[in-house]
Write a structure and sequence with these properties.
0% strand, Integral membrane protein, mainly alpha, 123 residues
Length: 123
């Protein structure tokens, strides 16, 4: 059995599944922040949300592609599991980091939009 191919297939399946799941969660739950940021302009919020998801996919699939190659030897199933845990662990850390980065950006934009809205109301 070729352990390299097995490792690559499992890595790609797990990484793609995790990326798609996180993207769907961010897309669904990030919309409300974007609608608020854009003062109820749903069309603009949906457009920005879709662009964010595309960027999210590009960054993660790019990293997955770069991290696919394994330079060590994979002699048995123990090494398959060890290599997969390392590679998938990095994908999970990157997805988590991007999630928190999105949250920070959304909250900063939302706070700015609220300040601008309060300034407009008070002016």
């Amino acid at each position: 059995m070729n352990y390299f191919i097995l490792t690559y297939v499992i890595y790609l399946l797990a990484s793609i599944a995790l990326t798609v799941w996180v993207a769907k969660v961010l897309f669904k739950n990030g919309r409300i922040f974007l609608v608020d940021i854009f003062h109820g302009n749903s069309e603009l919020a949906d457009s920005v949300n879709k662009l964010l998801v595309v960027g999210f996919y590009l960054v993660n699939i790019g990293y997955m592609s770069l991290a696919l190659k394994e330079y060590g030897s994979i002699a048995n199933m123990q090494v398959v599991v060890e290599v997969l845990s390392y590679k998938v662990g990095w994908i999970i850390l990157i997805l988590g980091g991007m999630h928190f980065l999105n949250l920070v950006i959304f909250f900063k934009l939302r706070n700015r939009a609220k300040r601008e809205n309060a300034f407009t109301i008070n002016a």
